[in-house]
Amino acid sequence: MTEPRYDAVIHAPNRLQICAMLAAVDSMEFSRVRESLGVSDSVLSKHLKVLEGAGYVEVTKARGAS
Asked: How far, CA to CA in Å, does 55 sit from each of 37, 44, 63?
């Protein structure tokens, strides 16, 4: 059995909340995550960049309606 280990990337409170929300779904809109956390666009973007860099999330940009 693998020993549990502390991962500073996901244990920051907002990042842990993001991981918990996204674990139950295939995808979620940026605005929904932002509103659930009660943070600004820039704060959420920074957290998502860290999580994406560590391979925890995949960020995709939706194409605008024509």
From this structure: 21, 16, 23
